[in-house]
Each structure stands twice: as structure tokens, then as C-alpha cells.
Amino acid sequence: MGSDKNSFVREVAEKKYEYGFTTNVETDIIEKGLSEDVVRLISSKKGEPDWLLQFRLDAYRYWLTLEQPTWGHLNMPPIDYLSISYFAAPASPKTSKDGEIDPELMKTFDKLGIPLEERMALAGTAVDAVMDSVSVKTTFREKLQEKGIIFCSISEAVREHPDLVREYLGSVVPYRDNFFAALNSAVFSDGSFVYIPKGVRCPMELSTYFRINARGTGQFERTLIVCDDDAYVSYLEGCTAPMRDENQLHAAIVEIVVKERAEVKYSTVQNWYPGDSEGKGGVLNLVTKRGHLRGAGSRLSWTQVETGSAITWKYPSCVLSGEGSQAEFYSVAVTNNYQQADTGTKMIHIGRNTKSTIISKGISAGKSQNAYRGLVKVASTAEGARNYSSCDSLLLGSQCGAHTFPYMDVHNDTAVVEHEATTSKISEDQLMYCNQRGISTEEAVSLIVNGYAKEVINKLPMEFAVEAQKLLGVSLEGSVG
Amino acid sequence: MSAGKQYIDFYQEVRDTIAARSSAEMNAQREPALETFSAKGFPSQKVERYRYVKVDADFSPNYGIALTPLAGPLPPYCFSIKDAAPHARVLYNKVADATDSIVALNTMLCVDTLVVHVPRGTRVEHPIQISNILKGDQDTMVCRRILIVMDELAEADIIITDRAASQNRFLTNQVIEVVMKDGSHLSLYDIEETHLLCTRYNSVFVQQGRNSSFRHTNLTLFNGHTRNRLDVLLQGEGSEVTANGCIIADKMQRVDNNTLIDHQAPACQSGELYKYVLDDSAVGAFAGKVLVREGAQKTKSQETNANLCATSSARMYSQPMLEIYADDVQCSHGSTVGQMDEAALFYMRQRGIDEQEARLLLKAAFITEVIETIPLESLRDRLHVLVDKRLRGELSKCEGCKLCK
Amino acid sequence: MLQINNLHASINGKEILKGINLTVNDGEVHAVMGLNGAGKSTLSNVIVGHPAYEVTEGSITFNGKDLLSLKPEERAHEGIFLSFQQPVEIPGVSMVNFMRAALNAKRKYQGLEPMPAGEFLKLMREKRSIVELDSKLASRSVNEGFSGGEKKRNEIFQMAMLEPTLTILDETDSGLDVDALRVVAEGFNKLRRPESSAIVITHYQRLLDYLKPDIVHVLIDGRIVKTGGPELATEIENKGFDWIKEEAGL
Question: Which helix (H) or strand (E) holds A108?
Fold first, then answer.
């Protein structure tokens, strides 16, 4: 079987990242470098009000006092923050009133299979697409407006709904939160804004597709979702980037506010360019995502399938303040070749009878390192809090690493906190059994891995689940051994 | 570095006295230790392995420092380092983490080392008991050092007990090094039964050869502040380690257990079971890392930390960690923090057992799992009694003493 | 022995018992029958003082004492024993220690000295044989790893040890095969003293064939809607509960 494996590995190592093309659109890129002037320039290019400029400047000044964190189980290449361009946009997008967009751009998103055209209504998903730093098109606007739902780019929201943005921006992830949050708050360029009014159930999945295109740029998008009392929304996020042999920086923030009895589902399929099989290039994905369950009985679930990026540093978190609020975190993180992931969640229980569930599945192959890092904190006020965490790791290959670093801080005697973790590999017996039944080794691995990840994949909306399943197959091919 | 300075000054004052009373092996390590300690000072809570302890505060008070060599008749197989076999005493400070400040402080100030040396093929019939009794008429810091050398195929049980016979403040900095050669077996029991004014830093370093097996059982029955570190290096193929702990803490007690099981060789097994019962305002912490190095195939590891918090002011920090660089492994860990099973409590009350007694029985039952793993029957029975007395507040240390009221 | 008057009880704010009246005299066996959710288990839990249930109205007296003012353990000392529908597992607490704690607590309540260890173990052996409880089970933790039948046998064994004056069998027949049922029921009959009483809660006739109740009650929606002799149980076995509902105008 050994030689079989080798040829299989060779074959797949040569396989290309499918989304690695670039788009020939004219791009408006500002000079590389970061200074107060750059922050002011970004703000003025976007025609922002003073309060927002001030917010950016405060963040920038605070960022200057910080150092890049080193606690992750990651071997991070040094990032020269001065050699990155902090703003890149397809030149003059959205010029015409009816939202005609550059046909080249249209082609890009078509290649990615993203339904930008409303004739794709069958897909049943409203999409906001962010190319480099600027939101390109938001579909299904009118239909959503009928219900009072706001779904637009954050720049537009700043113009048209300034009070809402000002009230919530930075209220869940303050710029003082961490190094990358401060950086993002200073230079964020675009992203999506969602507001679901009281009692409204959003009739379709809302989706943002992020794409890094230009060379030498960083992407700093910012997403803000506010779900008012008794409202519901399911939000999807997808990411791709072209193949570049340099590292590209992606430092995003997602903030979610969930009010009384409201429910938000946030799903991510992250497939940024992971670098080549030698570990060259790839996106540095350094993201702060957090939801605040403010209202009693509110619910938030994060589902993520992480297959891309050279380095992933992200911990979608939940602050459970509302009495009886419930949070979930479902994650599949796959690393292959030289990819590194340090990902997990934080569940901060503050309110009474709050409940959280963490299901994490790590799959490591090649020479990759895959770490789960999670915090479950039960404050002394969180009477009757419950947490269940289960973190499993699957190792495919003898040169990769799988790590589990859970932290549990319990300050209340009525809390019940449980954590389980296992690490295992696909056994020879399992493979042999499949082989004997006529299933090839690679197919068997794919079957077993998909079975292993099923608990999480099942949490994704249908369209995403199919995509995620395909991705799992692609990112793992060549890892048997 | 604030609290550290007083120790450096003290050492510089008494270095000649210490050297004169000590052995060549120990003296040779003092200056490098001073360098390490001067450079690093006491670790802050930002240092991962010291996250849950306040070292600076623990070492700040002004203590008299005991500088007396071992005296009196020693148990069988036990020697002062000066009288130990050459091949045993050269192992001094070879296994301990010399880069660690707490170890360096011990290496700097410790006057004598108790060497327990079990020669090749020897099976020690009765457990070797080492009793440390803290006693004095002033607040005292004690630097204690133990080196255990298990030659090839040697077998022994060692019971170390820490007690305090006077009501002063005591600070113990104990370092235990264990070298287990191929095929040796050792069970080491560490029982702490001191009082609220006692602070203990205990660092245990173990190096295991092929097919050796080591069992460590840590019992904190009564204490003030305790920090136990256990580092086990599984260097020989087929070696095994079991590390268990049973912690009962109430009032303002703090107990921190920090373990590292380092699987360096293939086909080794490790198992950990730590259970805490916390009452009043006690604070417990458990951080256990299992590291499986590249090439350490066929590793089997299981780590469990279970905790019972009986009051809302008790706190528990639990952090089981797996760091794995080999694929043919079976590793798992589990951690729980919870409270008493209300259904069990009611069942017992329906049978006529009053609530307080039922709670006590359930706490004892929770801890029993750890004690039941002890192969020495007489010790097991004794511990059941001690645990029961401890939970009833009847441990001899506490009887009528002013401190615990 | 036991008088229940106009008993109302609720759990999590939901009223389950809506005015129960029931009198059990010395030496009587009462059966309480009814469908799932009628309140049968609530009734037994309220009698023994389960903290999850709140009594909102009514009274229970037991041999002249106000039962509702007593703690669960005091009710046990007074002679009330509940054979639980689902006996809980208590890992780490051995059966021997558990029974000794229970027995001696009762003796203390009665002003007696604790039973000497030798005598206690002898008593354990004696009583165990009555319900054919394996000696291995007695040396394990309370109910831990016991099969359904073994748990129920263990309940009857504990009853034998504690010699209650009022025993409540809550769905003791559920999950038992015919042989296990026979052993449990015969054990119960052997152990019963003429002056002691019992309340048997069940869905089915089959346990009543062995236990021979004097009086049968039908509990529907938190109230006793019909009371009769042993023949009522047979009638229910043949015709179900619907006719009683109709008769009661429900």
C-alpha cells in the first residue's frame, strides 16, 4: 500500500488551489504604509463623519502602544505593517445607479460560484460581496427592505444609518480588545452591516463573500450584525484569495449583538489561499469575532469550516449576559502542508442559567499544526450556568501536530462545566476494512473524515454544507500516510 | 524582582557557611543557580506554568532560613548526599529544570540532599517513609532536596509526609529529582497535612528509562498555599506513568497542580486523575500538559480532572492540554467542574441519612476513586480514614487549634 | 396511619396534584393506578418530601404528625420508605456504608445506640437472602452498574433493612421481567408485617396479582376519581381507563 500512497500524495501535491486566479480590474490602491495621514485618507476616501474618523484615530494611537501577541501555538512570519497598502478598491465601482458593475468583476464572482445576480434567486441567498476592501454589490436589497431589514455595506450604513452604526460599532469588540482589533478599527475599509428589526424573521440567508485580489494589500473588513428583540437571521460568510507567493494579511472584526429572545446563526466557510505545498505564501487570517448575547433567552451559534489560510488565529466568542441565553460553537479546522491554525472559542457566562456548547474537530495532515484553544469562564453571577465542550483531533500523517488547550475558569458553585478531548488517527484496520470492501484508500479517508466532521457540517445551511464537504475533500487530498 | 532580592542578599551573606556544610556536587551548582535566579527573579502570572500562583506574594514575607544538614538516623536506603554512592550523587541537579527560578533558588540555598538509592535488582519490602515535620519558634523557610535513584530493576514504595508541629508561618521550597533506570518500579506518595500558615512549593522531576513504571500520588489534605509541579520525561520505550491527585481544600486554601508528561519515546503510557473538593473560599487549579513528541508512536494517554465546588465562593481553574506531534496515538482528556448530584442527595435523605451527612458521604465518594487506585492496602485504608476525618473537620491538626476556627 | 387532605402540589409552577384525599389505615395495601402524567409519581414524591415539588394547599398527617413540616430524612425515620421508580446510582459510596449510615441515623432518631458492626453485617446477610440479592452486588457502590431488576431488588432489600411502617412502591414493576417481578413481589410479601401498610403505584394489574391490594384508586389529572376493591384493578386491565373518565365526566 505504501507505494500507492506515495503516488497519490505526489498527484495531489501538484493539485492547484482552485480559487487562485487574479482578476484584471483596475484597482485604486493607496500608497503602502501606515500613519495618521493614511488613516485620515481612508476616512476621507469614504467620506466619513468626524466621529468615525476620531474612532479610527483613537484606535490607531492605541495600536501604536501595543505589540503583536505571541501566545498562539503559531510560528508567525514577521509582518511589516509599513509595507502593506491599507486600502485597495476596484476603481470606481458602482458608478451607475442601478448597480451595474464591472463585467470583469462579475466574471470573478461567477467563477467563484457566487450568485451576485438576482436572477440567481433560486439560490435563496442575499449576497454582499467584498472585493479587496470595498463592498461590490449587495443583492436582494429591496425585498429585504420591505421587512425593514437593513443589509448593506458598512460604508453605506455609516452614511444612511449613522445612529445605528454609532450605537453599536465597537460595542462588542472595542478597539482596545487586542492588537489586531485595534489595527482593524483604525483602517477597516468595508464589510457588511445587518440590522433585523424587532420580531422579524429574515426570510433568506444573508451572505457576504470576501475576496482578496490586489497584490501587497491587506484586507480589514468589519461586519456588524444587530438582531433586535425576537428577530432571527442566518448569516453566511465565505472567503477566497488568489495565489500569491507573499503572505497576505487579513485582520477582520465581526461584531454581533443579540437582543431579547433573538437568534443569530453565523456560518463561515473560510478558504483563503493556504500557501503552496512548500509553505510559501498564503493568507494570515487574524480575526476577532464576538457576539454579545445581551437579551434574555437570546441565542447565537457560530459554525465554521476552516480549510484555508497559511495561519489562522481566530476565536469566535460569545458573551452570555442575558438570562437563559444559549451559545454554540461548531468548528471543523483542517490543516495540510505547512498550514498552522490556532482556533477555538471563548464562552463567557455572566447571566443566570446560561448555556454553551462547544464542538470542535481538528484534522491535521502534512506538516501542519492544528491547535484548539478555548476558554470557558463562569462568572460568580452566572448561577446555573452549563457548558459542554468536546474537542477531537484527527491526525493524518506522522509529521503534523494536533493540540488542545482548553481553559476553564469556574467561579460559581452551581455551574456545571464539562470538557472532553480525544486525539486519534484513522486506523489501519478501518482503512483495510474499506479496502477489502473495494473502497480506495483516498476515498476511505475522505469518507472517514467527512463522517468525523459530520456533526459540524450538519449545522451549516444546505448550500454551504455541500461546499464545505467538497472543500474537506480537496484540502485533505494527498494527506494519506 | 522585588521579593527575589532578599534571597540573593541572604545567599551572598551566607554562601561560605552553606558551602562549608554542604557537598562538592551541590556547591558546584550554586553559582549557576544564582545567575539564573538573579536574571529571572520570581515568575509572574504571565508565565504560562505559573498562571494560577502568586509566587512573588508567597515569597515576600520575611522568613528565617534553615541551613541545617540532615541529622539523626535516616530510614533504610536513605543517605545524606555526602554518604551516597558516587554514581547516584552525580545525578544531583541533572533532572530538575535548572532554568526554573524556584528550582534555582532551591539549588542556591539548599544545604543537604536526601538521597534515596535502591540498588540494582533490589525489591524493597516495606515502604520507605520520609516524614518532614516543620517546627520552630519563628517563621521559617525550608529548602528541601530529595534525589531518588532507582537502579535497573529496582522496586520500592516511598511515602513522603509533610506535617507542621508548630503554628508559625512556614515556606517550603522542595525539589525532588527521580531517576528511574530501565525496568525499575517506583510508587511515590506525597501527603501534605500541614496548616493554613504553610506555603509549599514542591517541584518533582522524573526521568524514566525503558520499561520502567512510576506511580505518583499527591494528596493535599490540609494546607495553606500549595503549588505542586510534576514533570515526567518518558525517555525509554515502553515506560509508564500514573499520576494521581486528591485535593481537599476549604477556608482560604489554595492548591495548584501543574503537570507535564513528556512522551519522548514510543509505546509509553500515561494516565492522570486529579480530583478536587473545594469548599468555602478555596481556590483550586489544575493545568496538565501531555506532550507527545515526533516519533513517540503508539503512545497511550488519558488525563482526567474532576472537580466538585461546594460553595459559590470556591473557584476552580482547569486546563488540561494535549500537544501532539505523532499520529499513531490514543490520547484523551476530560475535565469537569460541577456540584453534588441532587438526585443522589435526595435518595440518601429518603433512606434517613441527614443532609449534612449525605453531602459528606458524597464528597468522600468523589475522592474515593483516587484513593482506590493505591495498591498499598494499609495506606489505602489509612487514607480513607484521614479523608473522612478531614471532611468532618476532625483532622488532628485542626483539633481545637485557633487557626481553623 | 396516613391522611391526605385536599393536597395540591406543583412543580416549576405547574400544578400537578389538584386536591387529593386519601386515607391509609394500619395494615392496608392501597393501589394507585393511572395513566402516565396523571400525577402518580408526584404523589409519592410529595409524600417523601422531594424538594422539587411545592405543596400549595392541603395537609398530610402520618401517625398524627404533620408530615409536611418534616425533612425528607425525618419522614424516613418516621417509617416511610419509597421504592424509587428509577433508583439513582451513587458511585463511590459502598452499599455497606450507605446502609449503615441509614440504619444508624434511624436508630439515633429512635434514641438507640449505633448497631455494632458484626451485628449489622449479619443483618445484611439475612435480609439479602430474602430478595436473592447477590452478595457481590452488596459489596459494590449503591446501584452502580446494577441492571434494572437488580436495582429494584436492591430497593426491596433496603426496605427489609429499614423496616418501614409505610412503603410506597413507585412503578416497581416497570422494566422487570416476570421472574424478577415475582422475586421482588414475594420478597415484599415476606417482609410485610401485619400492621405495616403500602401504597402501590402502577399502570398494570400484574404486580397487583402478587400484592393483593385491599383498595384500588384511580388517579386522573391530579385527582382520585374512583375508588374500589381489588376487582377495580381487573376491570381496568380489561377495559382501560376511558370508561372511568367518561363516568367521572372528564
Answer: helix A103-111
**Residue type, position A322, single letter:** G
Q: Which residues of B372-402 are buried (b: 16+ CB within 10 A; e: fewer)?
A: eebeeeebeeebeebbbebbeeebebbeeee
Contact A55, A260 (CB under 8 A): no
Q: Which of the two residues, C240 and B269, has the higher pLDDT score?
A: B269
- The minimal CB distance from B335 to the residues A401, A402, A408 is found for A408
Smallest CA–CA distance from B332 into chain A, residue: A422
The residue of chain B with its CA nearest to that of A417 is B337
* CA distances, A240 to each of A138, A219, A247 (Å): 18, 12, 14
pLDDT, average across residues A236-254: 74
**pLDDT tens, residue by residue, A324-341:** 999 999 998 888 888 899
Secondary structure, 3-state, chain C: CEEEEEEEEEECCEEEEEEEEEEECCCCEEEEECCCCCCHHHHHHHHHCCCCEEEEEEEEEECCEEHHHCCHHHHHHCCEEEECCCCCCEEEEEHHHHHHHHHHHHHHHCCCCCCCHHHHHHHHHHHHHHCCCCHHHHCCEECCCCCHHHHHHHHHHHHHHHCCCEEEEECCCCCCCHHHHHHHHHHHHHHCCCCCEEEEEECCCHHHHHHCCCEEEEEECCEEEEEECHHHHHHHHHHCCHHHHHHHCC
Burial label for C242, CB within 10 Å (0-12, 13-18, 19+), is exposed
Chains touching C (at least 3 CB pairs under 8 A) are B
Query: What are the φ/ψ torsions at residue A447 (nearest 5 degrees)?
Result: -60, -45
DSSP assignment of B194-241 = --TTEEEEEEEEEEE-TT-EEEEEEEEEE-SEEEEEEEEEE-STT-EE
Q: Is the pTM of this model over 0.95?
A: no
Beta carbons of B204 and B102 less than 8 angstroms apart: no
Collect all residues with Cβ–Cβ distance below 8 Å to A200 and sequence separation of at least 6: A147, A148, A149, A228, A231, A232
CATH 3.20.20.70 is the classification of domain C2-248: no
**Other beta carbons within 10 Å of B302:** 17
pLDDT digits (tens, 9 = 90+) for B133-174: 888 888 999 999 999 999 999 999 999 999 988 888 999 999
Within the 399-418 window of chain A, which residues sit less than 8 Å (CB to CB) from chain B?
A: 399-418
Distance of CA B80 to the CA centre of its chain: 21
Burial A273-302 (b: 16+ CB within 10 A, else e): bbbbbebebbbbbbbbbbbbbbbbbbbbbb
**Contact partners, residue A46, CB within 8 Å, separation at least 6:** A155, A158, A189
Q: For residue A278, give the C-alpha cell.
A: 512548500
Question: Neighbours of B (≥3 Cβ pairs closer than 8 A)?
Answer: A, C
Closest CA to C3 of C47, C37, C33, C39: C47
Torsion angle defined by CA atoms of residues A445, A448, A449 and A454, in that order, rounded to the nearest 10 degrees: 160
Rg (CA), chain B: 21
> What are the φ and ψ backbone dihedral angles of B23, each rounded to 5 degrees?
-110, 165
B200: left (phi over 0), alpha (psi -120 to 50) or beta: beta
**Residues, chain C, total?**
250
Question: What secondary structure letter does DSSP report for B127?
Answer: P
Q: Do C90 and B366 touch (CB under 8 A)?
A: no
Burial class (CB in 10 A: 0-12, 13-18, 19+), A164: middle
ipTM: 0.81
Please report, to the nearest 10 degrees, the dihedral formed by the alpha carbons of residues A271, A276, A280, A283 taken in order.
-10
Using DSSP's 3-state secondary structure scheme, residue B48 falls into helix
Chain-chain contact of B350 with C88 (C-beta, under 8 angstroms)? no
Contacts of B351 in chain C (CB under 8 A): 73, 76, 98, 102, 158, 162
